[in-house]
């Protein structure tokens, strides 16, 4: 399954993003982001299905909760895409 | 025991507070520290607590609700952020040592004290406006005096601060959970409060509501941006280094829910009813000097008095022997006593929670009457 990771600034930011997506009827899962993904160390991320990624970003934009970065899962690696 | 010391700590808590704290001890680790169920449970509880607090205090952003150890901790962060050496600071004449001591520690401050009489909000608001218009770097005011229970004109002071662009710090230690605290409406820089008084949480909890970014006083791990050695810029992580007090936060969540279910208006009405009843009873006693507002809206559930020829601490001791807990002396607010003229002995203070009853007030006044009939023996 193709999916995207939306990186949060903090666990609280991730929780707010999660609630906002729920409000837009978009399913997401929150979890600790892979350690090497950002150069800042520990962080949290939301995983959303590829087909709902744009919708998710629009929803978060409206809520003023833009992720700090977005990664696409491609095979065994993550590729950063523009926010 | 009849416990009339809610202004220090509410002793009786809703059952849900005790249950939640005990449960958290065995099931929650720390928010932001792992993907396992114990960390996730802590994250969820902390987040819900921030959201409930944000709702109660009229805030849009739950991440601007910061967990602290108590109101003093919160005030130290707030003061450390907006006050620097040489600052011009305006305070009310009713501030607690939690405000005056952090200020005392800053060199070369120019402090203006607005020392209007108690229960005169119009006079205080006018004095603040005059002082602020002369120029200030920060204004600090409590919402309710912890000694005299007078409700301070925070809305008007906040308006003056907004008009002149001066950051306002509100000490809501005696008002959180009792009176409306409207963070966004006030436009305050910070509002500090304990969790263990009117919010009915456990001791060791407090909140700082942030209207601006703040300087941390504690540096360390936050579970975020671990490779970066500066503290994170974003709230709440910037101000919450180290492991959270999850039993405290879980209990505080239930305390805030209790307050929201009951409603601050209902709680305030109850406290005012008890305060008035107590004032009526005390007025019947010989030699009692009472500090009570004519208009009940100007006083929260805190009432101070003195008795001619009697030391407040001794009276409190005698009441304690009869099973009544009150607070006497300076209540950590010598400035308030200086303003009202009750130095050096201070007052006897009674303060009420949602769990106190009119019958307890009657019993208290009966016991005090009996004490005052006794001969003074030193």
CATH topology type of chain A:
Alpha-Beta Plaits
The percentage helix of chain B is: 25-40%
- What global shape of chain B is seen? globular
Sheet with most strands of chain A: 5 strands, antiparallel
Count of spatially separate domains of chain B? 2
Oligomer: heterodimer
Give the CATH architecture of chain A.
2-Layer Sandwich
Task: Classify the beta-strand content of chain A into a percent band.
Answer: 25-35%
Q: How does the overall form of chain A come out from the CA principal axes?
A: globular
Number of strands of chain B: 13
Number of strands of chain A: 5
What is the strand arrangement across the widest sheet of chain B?
2-8-7-6-5-3-4
| Rg measurement of chain A, Å | 11 Å
Q: What is the string of SSEs of chain A from the N terminus onward?
A: EHEEHEE
Give me some keywords for this one.
heterodimer; A: 83 residues; alpha+beta; Alpha-Beta Plaits; five-stranded antiparallel sheet; 2 helices; 5 strands; B: 378 residues; alpha/beta; Aspartate Aminotransferase, domain 1; Aspartate Aminotransferase, domain 2; 2 domains; seven-stranded mixed sheet; four-stranded antiparallel sheet; 12 helices; 13 strands; 15% strand; globular
Question: Can you give a write-up of this model?
Answer:
- The complex is a heterodimer of chains A (83) and B (378).
- Chain A has one domain (3-81): 2-Layer Sandwich (Alpha-Beta Plaits), CATH 3.30.70.
- Chain A has 2 helices and 5 strands; from the N terminus they run E-H-E-E-H-E-E.
- Chain A has helices spanning 11-23, 53-62; strands at residues 3-7, 29-32, 44-49, 69-74, 77-81.
- Chain A has a 5-stranded antiparallel β-sheet, with helices on one face.
- In chain A, strand 4 (69-74) and strand 5 form a beta hairpin.
- Chain A is globular and about 30 Å long.
- The mean pLDDT of chain A is 92.
- With 378 residues, chain B is an alpha/beta fold.
- Chain B has 2 domains: 2-10 and 264-377, Aspartate Aminotransferase, domain 1 (Alpha-Beta Complex), CATH 3.90.1150.10; 15-262, Aspartate Aminotransferase, domain 2 (3-Layer(aba) Sandwich).
- Chain B is built from 12 helices and 13 strands.
- Chain B has helices at residues 15-27, 37-56, 71-82, 97-104, 121-133, 154-164, 183-186, 246-262, 264-283, 312-321, 334-340, 358-373; strands at residues 2-3, 65-68, 88-92, 110-114, 138-142, 168-171, 190-194, 206-210, 288-291, 302-307, 324-325, 327-329, 347-351.
- Chain B has a 7-stranded mixed β-sheet, sandwiched between helices. A 4-stranded antiparallel β-sheet of chain B has the order 9-10-13-12, covered by helices on one side. In chain B, strands 1-11 form a two-stranded parallel sheet.
- The longest helix of chain B is centred in the first third of the chain and has 20 residues, at 37-56.
């Amino acid at each position: 399954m193709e999916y995207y990771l939306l990186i949060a600034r903090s666990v609280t930011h991730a929780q707010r993003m999660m609630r906002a997506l729920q409000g837009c009827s978009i399913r997401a899962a929150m979890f600790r982001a892979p350690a090497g993904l950002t150069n800042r160390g520990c962080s949290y991320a939301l995983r959303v299905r590829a087909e709902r990624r744009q919708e998710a970003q629009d929803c978060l934009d409206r809520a003023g909760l833009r992720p700090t970065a977005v990664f696409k899962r491609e095979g065994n690696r993550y590729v950063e895409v523009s926010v | 025991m009849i416990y009339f010391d809610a202004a220090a700590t509410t002793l009786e808590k809703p059952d849900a507070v005790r249950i939640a704290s005990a449960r958290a001890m065995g099931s929650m680790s720390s928010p932001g520290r792992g993907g396992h169920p114990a960390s996730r449970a802590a994250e969820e509880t902390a987040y819900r607590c921030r959201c409930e607090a944000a709702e109660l205090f009229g805030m849009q952003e739950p991440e601007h609700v910061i967990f602290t150890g108590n109101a003093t901790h919160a005030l130290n962060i707030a003061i450390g952020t907006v006050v620097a050496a040489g600052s011009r600071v305006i305070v009310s004449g009713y501030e607690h040592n939690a405000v005056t001591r952090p200020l005392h520690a800053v060199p070369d401050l120019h402090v203006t004290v607005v020392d209007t009489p108690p229960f005169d909000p119009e006079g205080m608001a006018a004095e603040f406006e005059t002082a602020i218009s002369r120029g200030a770097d920060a204004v600090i005011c409590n919402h309710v005096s912890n000694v005299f229970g007078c409700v301070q004109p925070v809305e008007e002071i906040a308006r003056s601060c907004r008009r002149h662009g001066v950051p306002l710090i509100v000490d809501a230690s005696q008002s959180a959970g009792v009176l409306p605290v409207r963070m966004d409406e006030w436009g305050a820089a910070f509002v500090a409060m304990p969790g263990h008084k009117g919010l009915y949480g456990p001791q060791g909890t407090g909140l700082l509501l942030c209207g601006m970014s703040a300087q941390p006083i504690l540096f360390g791990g936050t579970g975020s941006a671990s490779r970066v050695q500066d503290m994170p810029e974003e709230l709440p992580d910037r101000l919450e280094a180290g492991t959270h007090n999850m039993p405290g936060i879980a209990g505080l969540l239930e305390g805030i829910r209790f307050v929201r279910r009951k409603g601050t208006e209902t709680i305030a009405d109850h406290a005012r009813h008890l305060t008035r009843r107590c004032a009526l009873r005390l007025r019947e006693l010989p030699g009692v000097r009472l500090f009570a507002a004519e208009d009940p809206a100007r006083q929260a559930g805190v009432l101070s008095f003195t008795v001619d020829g009697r030391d407040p601490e001794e009276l409190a001791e005698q009441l304690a022997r009869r099973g009544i807990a009150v607070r006497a002396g300076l209540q950590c607010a010598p400035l308030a006593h200086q303003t009202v003229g009750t130095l050096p002995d201070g007052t006897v203070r009674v303060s009420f929670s949602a769990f106190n009853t009119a019958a307890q007030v009657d019993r208290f006044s009966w016991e005090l009457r009996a004490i005052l009939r006794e001969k003074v023996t030193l």
